[in-house]
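Example record

One chain of 350 residues, shown exactly as stored in the release files.
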Amino acid sequence: MTDQSTPGTSDLAVIYLARYAEGTKPIQTFIKSYERHQAGAPHDFILLRKGNPDEKIDLFLARYLPAAISLPDDGVDITSYAAAAALLPHRLIVCLNTFSEIASDDWLAKLRAVFDRPGVGIAGATGSYESPRASMRRLKKRLFLAQPRFFPSPTRLRGAFQFVRRILPKKFSRYLVNKLIARLLTSAEKSKSVSNSEAEFEAFWVRETKAEGTYSYFQAMPDFPNAHLRTNAFIIDRHIFLNSGASAVLTRTEAYLYEFGPDSLTRQMLRKGKQAIVVGRDGKGYDVGDWPRSRTFRLEDQANLLIHDNQTRAFDRMTKQERNAFASITWGEDHSASLSDHNLPNNAPR
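Predicted structure tokens for this chain:
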């Protein structure tokens, strides 16, 4: 069912990053989906084992271990993809993160068919218009203005949230964080009868985003709409990927900038005159301006997703109000509006 080639005969490698620190469940979920859905295209499957050996996980992955690449649990996903890509001879690579879950037969054939079209530089399962700088500012403002007296300091409030996230199971903490974000996004902004004023927030935001501030890296991020393919599942030329700066990505902040910063992987492709395409389960390729009509990431019921991940599954579990909140930061208030419908900054991709 997997359409694997005889090792070394295909020009395409599918790299699956199995990060052992995430436990057995997400890795089992991916492998079961990979074995359930035929790929539809020849490829070499590369298991990328990241972190300390785990007998329980390795037992489940036994058939893939002979050709596996093992790495320490350093850096981020992009770091690992780059390390694997540097060792491989293939012309093309598909990178899938730990939480990926294939949702369609012929998924690889669909990705490759779109990628092989003239002018395409990268194709992926999901894209977004979100500007994390704009989203974080919006969230921080509403949190700041609604801040309870028990936490008069934003720093103390942030510390409390970080403490809760450390002591709770990861899945539950993510659930609570999503609930909080949705609540804040749907709450009305108020400037009266609150413990902090608009002016105080502006001063706080300047401090947080200046050179030595907590969110200093947000200054470099583009405004909305900030079109970028998400790096959870994508296909690209291996040499182009290695020349994109992927090998230099070591920290979470650098990974954020690589995915949706001013020199993101997507923007690099667009500056070269190449297309960045979202590929749906329907096998169609959606260019940047049509992403909001793809029915994929945070759009309607996401029925056209080719590959799921933890973010898409979290969206599926949300209430209608919560979905609308997350769709608004991902695509704007009008969730079906194309990129051409927005007032674009001069340096934004069109």
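Notes: The chain has 13 helices and twelve strands.
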